[in-house]
Amino acid sequence: MISASGSTFFEELGLYYIGPVDGHNIEDMVTIFEKVKAMPALGPVLIHIVTEKGKGYPPAEAAADKMHGVVKFDPKTGHQFKTKASTLSYTQYFAESLIKEAEVDNKIVAIHAAMGGGTGLNYFQKRFPDQCFDVGIAEQHAVTFAAGLATEGLKPFCAIYSSFLQRGYDQVVHDVDLQKLPVRFAMDRAGLVGADGPTHCGAFDITYMACLPNMVVMAPSDEAELMHMVATAAAIDDRPSCFRFPRGNGIGAVLPLNNKGTALEIGKGRVLTEGSRVAILGYGSIVEECRVIHRETEAESRKREIGKKGYGKNVCGTII
Question: Does 249 fall in a domain?
Answer without folding.
Answer: yes
